[in-house]
Amino acid sequence: MSWIDWLIVILPIAFVVWIAFFSKRYVKGVVDYLAAGRVAGRYVISVGDLMAGLSVITLVANAEQYYQTGFGVAFWANITAPIGIVLALTGFCTYRWRETKCLSKGQFIELRYGSRSFRFITAFVSTTAEMVTNAIGPAIATNFFIYFLGLPHEVMICGINLPCYAIIVVMCLTLATLVIWPGGRVSLLVTDSIQGLMSYPIFVVIIGFVILKFSWDVDLAPILLDRVDGESFLNPYDIAKLRDFNLFALIVNLISSVINRASWIGNDTSNSGRTPHEQKMAGILGSFRNGFSMIMMILIGIITVVFMNSPEFAFNKDRFGVTNNEMRKILSERVAGEAITDPEVRSKVIETVRAIPDKAHDTHDSNILLSQNDNLDTRYLNIVRNELGDTPEGRHSFQKFRSLYNQMMMPTMMGKILPVGVMGLFCVLMVMLLVSTDDSRIFNAAGCIIQDMVLPFLKKPLDPKTHMILLRWCTVGVSLFFLVVALFFSQMDYINMFTTIMCAFWLGGAGPIMVFGLYTRFGNLTGAWCALIFGSGTSLLGLIFQRNWALHIYPFLADKGWVESLDNFLRAVSDPFNPWIEWQMDAVKFPINSYEIFFISMMLAIGSYIIGSYLTYKPYNLDKLLHRGEYSDGHIVERQSWTLRNIFAKLLSITPDYTRGDKVIAWSVFTYSFIYQLGLTFIAVVIWNAISPWPNEWWSNYYYIAYLLVPGIVGVISTVWFSIGGTVDIIRLFKDLAARTVDTSDNGQVFQEIVDNTDDKK
C-alpha cells in the first residue's frame, strides 16, 4: 500500500482507541462496565450491533459461500427476512429478557431453574463454544491481511525468522484488548457506534468502485448464467444439485433463528437498553441499519466469482493489471507455502502449479458449463491432491490446502484490483470490522466466565472495584486463549460450516433451555439437563468425527473393511431426502455436514426438554422472574383487549409505550419486509413462475433490482438516518451515564436460595 493508504488506516484507528480511553470517566460501577448502565438508546445499540455483527470472517465466509452458490439459494432466503421482522416487532425473547434484569444468561438460568451447578455447566459449554468459534476470527482476519497486503509468511527481525501470522494475530488481539480495558461495555458501545458511522461512507465508496469497474450485463450476468443444470447461480428453481449451502441449510438457519433467539443473549448489548421498549426498538431498527453493508458484501462475493471465471480477465490485464490465471497461481503458491509443511513436497507442488497452462472459459459454448465438481479451480486442486498422495497425512494436508484456497481467494483478488485510496479505505474498514467484532466477543466471553463461573461460588458480595479488575484481567485471559487457538488450530472446512458445528455445541441444546425458560411454566431442571445432554452432546460427537475423519476415523474404518457397508447404510438413510441431503462415504470429508448435525441436535434437544419437563412437571411462577403483576417494581404496561380498530396494531405488537415516531418505524418495517420483500419479491414471483417460468435472463434482472437497486435506495436513506440518530444517542449516553445513580448490589450475584419458584395459583 502507498503512504496515503497507510494514513487512511492509522488515523481513524487511533481515534477509536482514544475514544475508548475517554469513555472510562463515565464508568462508575459494574452495571456500567457490563451493560453501559442500562441507559443506552436505540440507535447507539443498533449501529453498535451492526459493527459487532459484521466482521472480516463474515465477509470471507460470504464470499466463499457465494463462490459456491451465487444467488440461486439466496432467493429462498427472502422468506427468512419477514420471520426476523416478526421476531423483532414482537420483541420475542428480547423484551422478556430485559424484564428479568439479568446481567448474564447464567444468572437467568440459575433464577429460572434453581441450580447453581447447572448455571456453571451451561456457562462452561456456551463459553467454550463461543470462544473456540470466535477465536478463528483473528486467525481468518490475520490470513486476510497477509494475503490482501501480499505480506510474506515469515519476516526477519534481529536476525530471527518470525512468522508474520503470529505477529499480526498478537497485534489484532492487543488492539481489541486496548479498546475493552478502559470502560468495558461503554467503550465497546461507543467505539462500535463511531466505527459504524465511519463505515457508512466507506461502504458507498467500495460499492461505487465495483459498479464503475464491472458491468452487470456484460461482466456479471454471463458468468452467473454459465452453470450446469441443477447448479444455477441465478435460477432458484434449478439448484437441486448444489451441496452444503443448499435449501436444507436455509431451513436449518430458519429454525435456529427462532429456537435460538435467546441463546446468546445476556453477555452483549441486550442488557443495555434504558427500557425494555427501547431494547425492542433497537431490534426493530436492525431491519434498516445494514443498508449498504450487505450490498457491499454481496457485490464482493459476486465479483470474486466473475473475475476468477470470466474469459474477459483470463489474458487481458487492461482493466486491473492482472489476469485470473495469474491470480490462481499466486494464490496456489501462497497457500502451499502455508498449508504444506514438507519443503520437498511444497516445492514440487509449487513447481507443478506454475507449469499449469493458462486457460480461458468459453461462456458461449453451451457444452462446457461450470459446476461445483468441474470448474477452473479443479485443475489446480486435483494437481495438488495428486502431489500430496492418498495417505491419511496427504488427505489431511489437502483438506487444509482446499480450505485456505477457498477462503483466501477473495482477499488475494481484492489486494490486486483496488487502486490507491480505495485500498486504504477497504483496509481500514477491515481493521474496524476486526476490532469491533473481536473486542465484543472477547468481552462477552470474559463476562460470561466471571458472571457465571466465578461469581456463583463467592459467598459474599464482590465490591465493584475488585469486580471490574476481575473482568479486565479475564479479558486479557480470553485474549490469550484466542491467541493460542489462532496459532495452533487448523480450520478444515468452509467457514460457515465450521462456525455452525462449533456453535452447535451450545446452540444444539440451548434453544429450549432459554426460550421455553422465558415463555413456559412447565419447563424445569430435568428438561433442561435432557436438552443439554442430547442436543449439545450430539453436536460434540459430530464435531469430533469431523475433526478426526481424514486422519484417524476413515483409515480405521477402511482397515476394518467397513467402508462399503457404512456407505450403503448412509445412502439408504439419506435417499428419501435426496438431493437436499446426500450421505456417502468420503476419504477426505465426514459424510454428514454441519447443518445436518445441527438440525439433528436441535430436534433431539426440543423433544428431550419437553419429555423430561413433563415427566417431572411442576408449574413455575414466571411473573416473579419477569417482575410482573404483584412483583412489578416499575412502569406497568397496560394490556389492551383485541378490537377491530387495534387488530393490526396488536399483530405488530404496538403497545401504549409506542410514540407516533415508533409507530411510523414499526409500520415502515412491516411495509418493507412483508409487502415488498415477502409479497412482491417473493410470493408474487413464486406465483408468476408457477404459471409461467421465467427464463434465466429475467432472473438476472430480478437480482439486479431486488438485491442492488432497491436496497441501494434504502441504504441512502438509512445511512443519513442512522448517522444522525447514532450521533445524538452517543451524546445522550454520556449524559445519562454521568447522571446515573449506582446500585452496588446490582452485579449479577444471586445469594438467596430460589425455593419459592413454583406457581401456587391453580
From TrEMBL:
Entry similarity comment: Belongs to the sodium:solute symporter (SSF) (TC 2.A.21) family.
GO molecular function: symporter activity
Highest taxon listed in the record's lineage: Bacteria
Entry keyword annotation includes Transmembrane helix: yes
TM stretches of this protein: 6-22, 43-61, 73-97, 118-148, 160-181, 193-216, 291-309, 417-435, 470-489, 495-519, 526-545, 597-617, 669-691, 703-724
Catalytic activity: L-proline(in) + Na(+)(in) = L-proline(out) + Na(+)(out)
Compartments (UniProt record): Cell membrane
Protein name per its UniProtKB record: Sodium:panthothenate symporter
Keywords assigned: Cell membrane, Ion transport, Membrane, Sodium, Sodium transport, Symport, Transmembrane, Transmembrane helix, Transport
Entries under InterPro entries matching the protein: Na/Glc_symporter_sf, Na/solute_symporter, Sodium:Solute_Symporter
Gene3D superfamilies: Sodium/glucose cotransporter
Organism: Victivallis lenta
Membrane topology: Multi-pass membrane protein
GO CC entries: plasma membrane
Example GO BP: sodium ion transport
UniProt keyword Transmembrane present: yes
